Amino acid sequence: MDERKYTVGIDIGGTNTVIGMVADTGSIVDCVKIPTVGHASPETFVGCIAAEIEKLVNRLPAQSIVAGIGVGVPCANAETGLVEGAANLPWPNFPLVRLMEDAAGMPTFITNDANAAAIGEMTYGVAQGLDNFIMLTLGTGVGAGIVVDGHLLSGSRGYAGELGHMVFPFAADRMCACGRRGCLQTVSSAGGVVETARRLLDSEAIPSSLRDIDRDALSARDIGRAAEKNDALALEVFRFTGDAIGTACASFAAFSDPDAIILFGGVAGAARFMVDAMREALEREALYVYKGRIRILTSSLPEADAALLGAASLPLHYEKKNVKKDE
Amino acid sequence: MDERKYTVGIDIGGTNTVIGMVADTGSIVDCVKIPTVGHASPETFVGCIAAEIEKLVNRLPAQSIVAGIGVGVPCANAETGLVEGAANLPWPNFPLVRLMEDAAGMPTFITNDANAAAIGEMTYGVAQGLDNFIMLTLGTGVGAGIVVDGHLLSGSRGYAGELGHMVFPFAADRMCACGRRGCLQTVSSAGGVVETARRLLDSEAIPSSLRDIDRDALSARDIGRAAEKNDALALEVFRFTGDAIGTACASFAAFSDPDAIILFGGVAGAARFMVDAMREALEREALYVYKGRIRILTSSLPEADAALLGAASLPLHYEKKNVKKDE
Questions:
Q1: B55–chain A Cβ distance below 8 A for any pair
Q2: Which ipTM was obtained for this model?
Q3: How far is CA B63 from CA A218, A267, B50, B57, B86, in A?
Q4: Staple B135 to which of A33, A163, A203, B145, CB 3.0 to 4.6 Å?
Q5: How many CB atoms are closer than 10 A to CB A86?
Q6: Which residues from A are below 8 Å from B155, CB to CB?
Q7: φ, ψ of residue A300 in degrees (nearest 5)
Q8: pLDDT digits (tens, 9 = 90+) for B210-267
Q9: Is the pLDDT of residue B325 over 60?
Q10: Using CA atoms in the order B105, B106, B111, B114, what is the torsion angle rounded to 10 degrees?
């Protein structure tokens, strides 16, 4: 029997963490989800992940090799291995690579969740063959993986693409987890969509099935389900969200001249309710050289897969560079 | 006597065009300036440039080789050789590479003026050794050369870095040459600085030597000279401009995580009057991960030299790639 090579891909989100065993062919052979919240410390959280990895490893056939762990996590510093200032995680700062290598005994590599998703989408999804695109991750937080001239932007300390924290007038009355006002994230994250719905429920007389849901328990998923049933208020929530995202993308275009914007993450599940307003705003607000040139796409990979596959590709990607680690 | 290799560098701005003969050692050995405006057509404009190039070539010593022409020009499409939609030039669209090759008989390469300046600054100026910076060109128009991870961003059609056309609330009441409202350029260009001064002259009772200058003839240079003499209104103009640029740079940081912002172009000559307000705004408005990390630099090269040297380096840069042209 031949040896078979695997890597572990991990996608740490603000709510859930997905851990997958990925074959070097790019197929996810096994996968488990644990909550990100509710752990006493980063150490216990990483300990839980390591325990899940052990179970995944034990389920592999004999002769399997696990080459390493790749993690997509908000505010990852790929150089230092630290998570630094992650406003959407229970612990904004912790030494993820060191904790993971101690707990799991495998070489570990991190990048931010949006970059991981962009790498996954380039390798397996709708971004195959695209040299210029922005992948907007719309989830608990909002980030971006930006590819320009075929290269995924990293920046001086790996913080390129924090587009969820670009400030726009349409969000001027919203406070962000980062401590500032007006961030795109306050409108286009799952929480932002809920906040928009609450405001509309308060201020508009539109009838809506959302009025039957406890205000504090209302989720972006509830609003998506209502939109699927043509609920007028829910549709207006996504129209507003799409308009905001399209306006933001008109600004982003001036930076990197992309061929496409790719929507990814939980909120992107409602893309079909947002895309018309998004396209209209993008065409309305963009500088003339970009008008009519930028496609709006949605991730073709199942929700967690792009981030997981992108993360899982990190150990393979770094294998050749990784001289220091093997010393 | 040895052969000596030269290239022609051209910097086409909204007001003037600078044409220089540059040795392959990077020194500008000869240089001439002609107005960009006042020509009957793109053909006659390019014809004037070609005539100046001929004079420069004739002044070279014997045994000199001129390898080609590089041009920095707004809205250059490096792929097609066209200028497309240049709002700050007398002709927004013209086939610059074809006209120049026809008129001057030398292989010609173009990039936008801001990219040319960034290449020049990387090769000879304060950006030597910097892998992550944004070079903001503040002149008749406002553009940017963006370098991320050591790579100068081009984008899907060469239009990356049109940061002068990012829209901000501080300029919401200003109309841009591009037809939209609120572009950074309406505040931070030479014309934007003049407009700010006019507004302050109208609305504020601050005494100012600028009140002695004919309102329609007022130039950014006048305002710079007044600031040098501590004119309170002129200083307030540059404080406002610096605050606006700093606010804009806080947004730009979220895109590319730069180590430095480099100010370049005519308005950057007044950088010392803007830099305190710019730094304060950048630190105030930036996401926490960028705070205290971004240096503000001014170009170390004489005003036109960076753009000229960057342009002149294009034929050398493309020499190896340039198979089609030689066929």
A1: no
A2: 0.81
A3: 79, 66, 21, 11, 38
A4: B145
A5: 23
A6: 132, 148-149, 256-258
A7: -95, -5
A8: 999 998 999 999 999 999 999 999 999 999 999 999 999 999 999 999 999 999 988 8
A9: no
A10: -100
